[in-house]
Design brief:
With 136 residues, the chain is mostly helical. The chain has a single domain, classed as Zincin-like. It has six helices and three strands; from the N terminus they run H-H-E-H-E-E-H-H-H. The radius of gyration is 16 Å and the shape is globular. The termini are far apart. InterPro entries: Zincin_1, Zincin_1_sf. This is Acetylglutamate kinase.
């Protein structure tokens, strides 16, 4: 029997996650990527205390991703100098969720969180996104 040994494996770093996120984005359908536009994807270990406080979240492990910006449905041609839209992926909460599950690869989970947050960029609510996921 050939057992996999984990004694020489390290957890994916922030840079590893950034590579996985870029690959996940690049693997999305071209139309979806085009509609996402110039959204910036950023990987951090955890959300900031300010973000957690603003969302009323006490446990940083509860937030795997966040969209920050003006969604496409709310934009105006009069919006000059606006900050770029950003999607944050939080490495430690994603790793924690992945470790608790046995039904999804790390790449699939990163893709799921990324697509969910880009959904907010498109102006979709959490309920909209969950309904689309349930119908898929």
């Amino acid at each position: 029997m050939n057992l996999m040994t984990w004694s020489d494996r390290l957890a994916p770093s922030l840079d590893d996650f950034a590579v996985l996120a870029k690959q996940a984005f690049d693997d999305l359908p071209a139309e979806f990527r085009h509609l996402a536009g110039e959204v910036v994807i950023r990987v951090d270990d955890f959300p900031s205390e300010e973000v957690l406080d603003s969302l009323g979240i006490e446990d940083a492990f509860e937030l795997t991703g966040l969209y920050q910006g003006v969604d496409l449905s709310s934009r105006s041609v009069l919006d000059f100098g606006a900050e770029p839209s950003r999607v944050f992926l939080y490495r430690r909460p994603i790793l924690d969720e992945w470790a608790e599950r046995s039904d999804v690869s790390l790449g699939e989970l990163i893709t799921h969180v990324l697509v969910h947050e880009i959904g907010h960029h498109f102006g979709l609510s959490d309920d909209d996104i969950h309904r689309i996921e349930d119908e898929a």
